[in-house]
Backbone:
C-alpha cells in the first residue's frame, strides 16, 4: 500500500474540506477524481504534510503524515497544477536545484537533471530560460522537477491542464510509461475522466470531502448481472421477442441491445447465437456490457 | 517521451544515488542566491564603484609619500608626517562606508528586491515547499542569499584598504587599535543585515521585483529627503552659516534634535551605527583641514536597538506574507 489514511478531517476555519476521509492508495497508477472543491488538492496537501489534520491520521510510504512531513516530501514528487518555476534559471539549473532541495548532492543532481530532461523530451531546450517555455514545455518541466530525485510516489495535479491534443497525448504517454514497470507509484488528480481512464488502473472518487468510491477501474465498470451488449446488422423484433420468451431481459439502447440472461458466459453466448440463427438475425458484435467511467463517477458523486 | 537513442538509453531510470537527510535546506536556497548574485556583472561593477573613497585615499597617501620622498630636505618629510598625524585611520573606514551608502542601496535592490517578489510571481514556493523544506528554510535561505553577497560587497573595498594600510602605515599608528577592524566588520555585518531585512520584507509584499525595488528605494530616499529637509529648514531659520556650525558643535539648544534627525533615515541609521560601534564622531575627509564639525555619534545601545527592531519587524512582515500558495501554513 502506497498511502493509507484513516478518518482524516481537515478544516479551514469553519469549513470542513475533508470529513472523516479514509482511503487506501494501492501501488500502481491511481486516479484521484472529484468535482471542483471536492477536496482533492486538500487531500494531496495533507498527504505532503502541508496541512495538519484536526482529526485522524495516516501514513504515506510508511511515514506518518503528522510527524514526518519532510521525510514524506523527500520520497514524493509533486507536479503542481499551476505553472511554477524558479526565476532566472534555465531548465537544467531549475531541475538540478529541485534535486538539491530534495537532498541530492549537487553533482548527482546536475547529472540526473540532464537525464530526466531528456526523458521528458526537453533535451534540446534544456539550456533555455524556463520563463520562455510554452505551456506544454512548462508541464514537462514540472514533471521533470518532480521526478529528478527518483521519488517512490508521484503526485500529479491536473497534469494535462492547458495542453493541446498532441501535448496531452504525449504527457499521458509519459505518465503511463513512468507509472508502469518503473517502480514509481503515481496518483493523478484530475477531473478529465478520459485521461484518468487512459493511464490509471485504480480510481478514488472524492466528493464533499469524503471518499465515495474506490477500486480498480475494471471492477468499477462491471455492471451487476454481467449483461451482454449485442450489435445486430439490422433490427430484428423476432430475435428480441425470442430472447424475452427465453426469460432474458432485453434493453434497447439505440443500435445496441443489452441482454441479461441467467447462466454462465458460455451458456449465454450459445443461447444468443442459437436464437439468432433461429430468427434469422445477424449478430455483428457482442461484448460484456460495462459502465463508462463517467457513469461510475456520476453515480459516486451523486452518492 | 524521448525516442530511444542509438547510443544513449533515454528511458526512465530510478535514481539510486545518495540522498542527504531532509534538514538544513536553507543553505541550498541561500547558495542559489549567492551564486546568482556573483554571476551578475552589475554586482561587481557596484562593488568596484563603492570602493572609490578608499581608492582616492590610497592615491592621496601614495602621492604625498612620493612627494615627500622625492623632495629633498627634512621639511618635506615633516610635512608628510604632519599630514599623517591629521589622519584618523578608523575614520577613513567611516568615510568609505558613508560615501558608499547609495551604492549599498543599489546592491541591496539588485540582490534583494526580487528575492521573494519574483518567486511570488513565478509561484516558486510550490516547487520549493514540495521538497523537504519549510517556511523557515525558505526565509532563512533567502535572507542569507541576500546578506552574504551584500556583506562581501561591503567588505572587499575596506579589506583592500586595510591590507594596504597594515602593510604601509603600521609605523604611523594604523594598527594601534587592534580592535577597530573587527569592529568595522561588525558594522558592515549590521549594515548588510539591516538592508537585507528591509529589502526582504518589502519584497515579500509584491509580485514583481521592480515594484518592490521602487518601494524600497522610495522609502530610503523619502526618509533621507525629509530628514535633510527638516534639518535644513531649521538651519535656515537660525541663519544658515552660524546656525549649522553652532548646532553641530552642540552650542544650540536645538542641536540635540538636529543630531537625532540626522540619523532618522536608513543611511543615517547605518552611519550612526558605524560611528557608535567604531566610537568616533568622524573627522575631515582625506585628512584635509575643514571648518565643518561632524555630527556627534549617537548612543550605541539605542541605535543598535532601533536597527534590530526595524530588521526584526521587516523579517516578521516577510514571515507573515510568505505562503506556499493558498493554504500552506
Residues:
Amino acid at each position: 500500500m502506497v498511502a493509507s489514511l484513516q478518518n482524516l478531517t481537515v478544516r479551514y476555519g469553519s469549513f470542513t474540506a475533508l470529513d472523516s476521509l479514509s482511503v487506501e492508495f494501492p501501488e500502481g497508477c491511481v486516479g484521484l477524481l472529484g468535482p471542483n472543491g471536492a477536496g482533492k488538492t486538500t487531500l494531496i496537501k495533507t498527504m505532503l504534510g502541508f496541512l495538519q489534520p484536526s482529526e485522524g491520521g495516516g501514513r504515506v510510504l510508511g511515514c506518518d503524515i503528522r510527524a514526518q512531513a519532510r521525510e514524506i516530501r523527500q520520497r514524493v514528487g509533486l507536479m503542481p497544477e499551476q505553472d511554477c518555476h524558479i526565476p532566472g534559471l534555465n531548465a537544467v539549473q531549475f531541475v538540478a536545484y529541485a534535486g538539491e532541495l530534495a537532498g541530492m548532492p549537487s553533482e548527482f543532481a546536475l547529472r540526473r537533471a540532464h537525464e530526466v530532461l531528456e526523458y521528458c523530451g526537453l533535451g534540446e531546450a534544456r539550456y533555455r530560460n524556463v520563463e520562455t517555455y510554452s505551456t506544454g514545455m512548462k508541464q514537462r518541466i514540472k514533471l521533470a522537477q518532480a521526478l529528478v530525485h527518483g521519488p517512490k510516489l508521484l503526485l500529479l495535479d491536473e497534469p494535462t491542464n492547458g495542453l493541446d491534443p498532441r501535448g496531452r497525448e504525449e504527457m499521458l504517454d509519459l505518465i503511463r510509461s513512468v507509472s508502469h514497470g518503473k517502480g514509481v507509484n503515481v496518483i493523478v488528480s484530475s477531473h478529465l475522466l478520459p485521461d484518468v481512464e487512459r493511464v490509471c488502473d485504480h480510481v478514488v472518487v472524492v466528493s464533499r470531502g469524503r471518499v465515495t468510491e474506490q477500486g480498480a477501474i475494471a471492477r468499477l465498470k462491471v455492471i451487476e448481472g454481467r449483461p451482454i451488449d449485442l450489435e445486430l446488422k439490422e433490427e430484428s423484433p423476432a430475435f428480441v421477442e425470442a430472447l424475452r420468451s427465453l426469460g432474458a431481459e432485453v434493453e434497447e439502447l439505440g443500435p445496441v441491445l443489452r441482454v441479461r440472461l441467467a447462466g454462465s458466459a458460455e451458456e449465454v453466448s450459445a443461447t444468443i447465437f442459437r436464437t439468432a440463427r433461429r430468427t434469422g438475425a445477424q449478430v455483428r458484435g457482442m461484448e460484456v456490457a460495462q459502465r463508462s467511467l463517467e457513469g461510475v463517477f456520476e453515480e459516486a458523486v451523486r452518492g | 517521451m524521448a525516442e530511444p537513442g542509438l547510443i544513449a538509453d533515454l528511458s526512465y531510470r530510478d535514481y539510486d544515488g545518495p540522498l542527504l537527510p531532509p534538514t538544513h535546506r536553507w543553505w541550498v536556497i541561500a547558495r542559489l542566491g549567492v551564486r546568482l548574485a556573483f554571476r551578475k556583472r552589475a554586482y561587481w561593477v557596484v562593488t568596484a564603484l563603492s570602493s572609490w573613497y578608499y581608492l582616492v585615499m590610497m592615491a592621496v597617501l601614495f602621492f604625498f609619500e612620493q612627494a615627500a620622498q622625492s623632495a629633498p630636505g627634512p621639511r618635506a618629510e615633516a610635512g608628510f608626517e604632519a599630514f599623517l598625524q591629521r589622519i584618523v585611520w578608523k575614520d577613513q573606514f567611516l568615510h568609505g562606508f558613508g560615501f558608499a551608502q547609495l551604492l549599498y542601496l543599489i546592491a541591496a535592490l539588485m540582490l534583494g528586491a526580487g528575492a521573494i517578489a519574483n518567486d511570488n510571481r513565478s509561484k516558486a514556493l510550490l516547487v520549493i515547499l514540495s521538497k523537504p523544506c519549510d517556511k523557515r528554510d525558505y526565509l532563512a535561505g533567502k535572507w542569507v542569499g541576500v546578506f552574504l553577497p551584500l556583506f562581501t560587497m561591503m567588505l572587499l573595498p575596506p579589506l583592500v584598504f586595510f591590507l594596504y594600510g597594515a602593510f604601509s602605515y603600521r609605523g604611523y599608528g594604523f594598527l594601534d587599535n587592534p580592535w577597530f577592524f573587527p569592529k568595522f566588520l561588525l558594522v558592515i555585518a549590521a549594515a548588510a543585515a539591516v538592508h537585507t531585512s528591509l529589502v526582504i520584507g518589502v519584497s515579500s509584499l509584491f509580485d514583481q521585483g521592480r515594484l518592490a525595488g521602487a518601494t524600497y528605494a522610495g522609502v530610503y530616499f523619502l526618509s533621507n529627503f525629509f530628514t535633510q529637509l527638516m534639518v535644513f529648514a531649521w538651519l535656515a531659520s537660525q541663519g544658515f552659516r552660524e546656525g549649522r556650525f553652532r548646532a553641530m558643535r552642540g552650542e544650540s539648544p536645538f542641536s540635540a534634535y538636529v543630531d537625532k534627525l540626522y540619523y532618522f533615515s536608513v543611511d543615517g541609521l547605518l552611519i550612526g551605527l558605524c560611528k557608535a560601534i567604531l566610537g568616533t564622531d568622524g573627522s575631515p575627509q582625506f585628512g584635509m583641514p575643514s571648518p565643518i564639525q561632524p555630527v556627534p555619534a549617537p548612543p550605541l545601545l539605542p541605535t543598535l536597538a532601533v536597527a534590530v527592531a526595524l530588521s526584526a519587524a521587516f523579517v516578521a512582515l516577510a514571515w507573515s506574507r510568505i505562503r506556499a500558495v493558498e493554504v500552506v501554513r
